[in-house]
Design a protein that fits this description.
The protein has 140 residues and is mainly α. Helices cover 51% and strands 0% of the residues.
Length: 140
């Protein structure tokens, strides 16, 4: 017998993966991780998606109007300024007001919902500074 005893045991004992199937299947946390309910939720109202993308839609409309009035260079310049302002931010554990972005959009003189009810001292964003920096740098 050239195959050995261990290969005979592998051939003679069928290995069946024990898993429940059907409507009562348990979720295996070790293999599949935690379930994400948020990704499975659908919008509850037709206007919800429109409201989530309000700023993006408004920017697109403003860029189209600016292009029609001043030409192609104006929206390109404004988009480049938006991108530069978004890159310059504070550390992830510090609150950032993005006043430069508000100024570019023309929202610096408007009083909105976030100005009154979004108090940074009551924010839940503050966390462990070292962990948040490591996460942003991709070390975690």
């Amino acid at each position: 017998n050239s195959r050995g005893a261990s290969s005979l045991l592998k051939d003679s004992i069928p290995v069946i993966e024990f898993s429940a199937s059907g409507p009562f299947e348990g979720h295996d946390l070790l293999r599949r991780g935690f379930t994400s309910v948020k990704s499975e939720l659908m919008p509850t109202h037709p206007l919800e998606l429109s409201e989530k993308n309000f700023q993006l839609n408004q920017d697109k409309t403003n860029f189209a109007t600016l292009r029609n009035i001043q030409g192609l260079h104006a929206p390109l310049k404004l988009q480049m300024e938006f991108r530069a302002v978004k890159q310059a931010q504070r550390l992830p554990f510090l609150h950032s007001s993005n006043i430069a972005l508000d100024t570019l959009r023309g929202n610096d003189e408007c009083i909105s919902f976030e100005d009154i009810l979004n108090d940074p001292s009551q924010s839940e964003v503050m966390g462990e500074p070292h962990m948040m920096m490591e996460y942003k740098l991709g070390l975690l």
